[in-house]
Amino acid sequence: MKRFLLAAAVLFFVGTNALAQEEQVTIVVATGAVGQELELTRAAAQRYMEQHPNVTVDVIETPDLSNDRLGVYLQVFEAQSPDIDVMQIDVIWPGDLAEHLVDLYEYGAEEVVDQHFPAIVENNTVDGRLVGIPWFTDSGLLYYRTDLLEKYGYDAPPTTWDELEEMAQTIQDGERAEGNPDFWGFVWQGNSYEGLTCDALEWIASNGGGTIISPDGQVTIDNPAAVEAVERAAGWVGTISPDGVTSFGEEDARNMFQAGNAAFMRNWPYAYSLGNAEDSAIAGKFDVAPLPAGASGNGAGTLGGWQLAVSRYSEHPDIAADVALYLASPEEQKIRAVEGSFLPTVMSLYEDPEVLEAAPFFGRLYDVLINGVARPSTVAAPNYAQVSQAFYTAVHDVLTGASTAEDALALASLDIQDITGLEAGQP
Amino acid sequence: MLTPPRTATARKRGPSRLARAEARTAWLLLLPTFVILAVIAFYPFSRVVTSSFTNARFASANAETRYVGLANYRALLSMTIRELPRVVDDDGQPVLRDGEPQYESWVRVLPREPLRYRAVFEFSLLGRRYVVGAVTAPFVRAIWDTSVFTVIAVFLETVLGMVIALALNTEFRGRGLMRAAMLVPWAVITAVSARIWEWMLQPTRAGLFNALGSYLGISDGRTDFFGNLTLQLPSMIAMDVWKTTPFMALLLLAGLSTIPSELYEAAEVDGASRLRQFFTITLPLLRPTLAVALVFRTLDSLRVFDIFQVVLGNRRFSMASYTQDLLISQRDMGTSSAASVVIFVIIAIFAVLYIRMLGQRSLE
């Protein structure tokens, strides 16, 4: 239903603008609306329109959950519809969607591509075609309440999951005893969707359980370290994490943390500037750290990030590509970094004093990004979406108690072997 | 309906010229309907049937589409029942935990070749434990869930709708206002009302029901209505009942208003109680209306999509929302089409059964 509403909204915007300004070119940009994304993109579109009076840039919002967003794009692609010109695509999609996207190298991307992290550019290059220009990058982070850690006598954020469990329990018990029955220790993303793949991959990778499919193409998810990691997470539900965490997405976790009702949160960098906004109950009372480590001794943050792609079915691919390149330019990425704490993909911005002043933790993120764990989207292409679904469904079954971790991961391993045709192996 | 009446005498003499002309006009009038049906119903449906025999991928013009025969249907409908052996220790004695025998996991019991089965549910019978397996377990579970949802929701809607209709059928001040107010839930777009309910049923005290429950001391204020496997279906049923009871009430109210009041006056004179009047006058005369309302609501419930999709997403499926998941998330257009055909057949069976059971007498 959400999709129908969106399609209707798209038609409405396209329709009204076509009537109003006939010689105008309208470019529809479909972006996320998580946190303040939409406002930032609208402001950027406004700046572009001031420089290009003959272009109208319509920014439309897409569903918050990345699975739903993919659904919208696939429907537009299946119909080969020109309704959306520029779209924000996830770091895991270039392989699956390449056939529907233009090669940005044909529209002047060579001149700017060297400014961006080479690994992301490589991720977005399919058969030598640049199908998306990097817009912002992401890594899973641990948010923690500095004031509460101090209050309960901790001098540093947890570095292992054991420490996190212990601290979360202590703070939760203490805060509840002081009269906040809605307080929880740790919030994260437990709904059955791509976000759970990211969270679970962090638990498993940090426990030495591998990355679902190893880079050399073996399905490694069925192993004792992974089982242990998922069992541990299932133990959080109802103890240090709310029972409802199994239906949480990014925004559900953020709302709870930002209302002052959680000690720890796993989330993406975008939550930083929102947490420090004026209306936030926790402004100035929290910080970020790398995610805790399990048996492997290293913490792991799942790498995310979004790109701007131009639809092959756009009626003005040249102008659409220009809009995409403008939105991803260093100037615009800097504004997004300062105002929205979105991690730039332009390397030089990590040394920009204004950026570092607005988001001091960016400087520390180098290690997090280096230790980051990538989802197996390249090795599973073009079937990554199905692989991920098999994985997060299995993990969700364990979280809700519908299955044991052993059974669920054994089954997920078989499913993923079926989907990809790869052999099973050990991480 | 539009064909002229054929009495025995008329048939003997053959239809009159006038009757033939009327029949011709009737066909002409029906022709546009058939054309429209062919374009908007038969053509798309035949496309669905065709693609249900292929391995077509959604939004993927490059992938080669092959004919796969009945493979999609086999994957959707293959089911089996296996007994789960007990877990035994090295001496061959059953392992007990908390006094209960332990059973092997179905993962090791259900067949893997040539198609892999997974558990739909387990049950115990005569001291043995069994597992029902299916190749596409989520689809079988979706069929089961949708059927349970339909039976309970339609039953509640009918009973509540009847109560409301009877109440609104009596004369009282503000009846017009009540009738209008009653229709509000029905008028709200389902996606919107699903979102409203999603907020009210939030798993924390931010949600209305949890706030109320903890205020009244009957819950701890953290009931997860949509995450808890046993509360998911009841929550969906509550949402559907809230939304569609007004529709039921409206239909029944229309039926009630056709019953002549003289019948009740006569019954009153004969000294029949209100209850007696309901069962001997109201219910029999309402039967045709009730039949139509039940058919409408049942077929609608079997196709339920929006509330499952908006609220439960990938967590639990109705038949329709699983079909959508196959198409969008898994991009498996072939299996998705086959699932649509299966749903069509299921709904058709329901429709025929209904018309057999309720229709024949009352719809004539």
Number of E-state strands of chain B: 5
Note the overall shape of chain A: globular
Structural class of chain A: alpha/beta
- Strand arrangement within the widest β-sheet of chain A reads 2-1-3-12-6
Determine the fraction of residues in helical runs of chain A and give it as a percent range: 40-55%
How many helices of chain A does DSSP assign?
19
Strand order of the largest sheet of chain B: 1-5-4
What kind of oligomer do you see? heterodimer
How far is the first residue's CA from the last residue's CA of chain B? 11 Å
Provide the β-strand percentage band of chain B: 5-15%
Q: The biggest beta sheet of chain A, please?
A: 5 strands, mixed
Low-pLDDT runs of chain B: none
Mean pLDDT of chain A: 91
E-strand count of chain A: 13
Q: Tell me the fraction of residues in β-strands of chain A, as a range.
A: 5-15%
User: Looking at the structure, what is the overall shape of chain B?
Assistant: globular
Average the pLDDT over all residues of chain B and give the rounded result: 87
Distance between the termini of chain A: 41 Å
Q: Greatest contact pair?
A: A-B, 44 and 38 residues
* Range of helix content of chain B: 55-70%
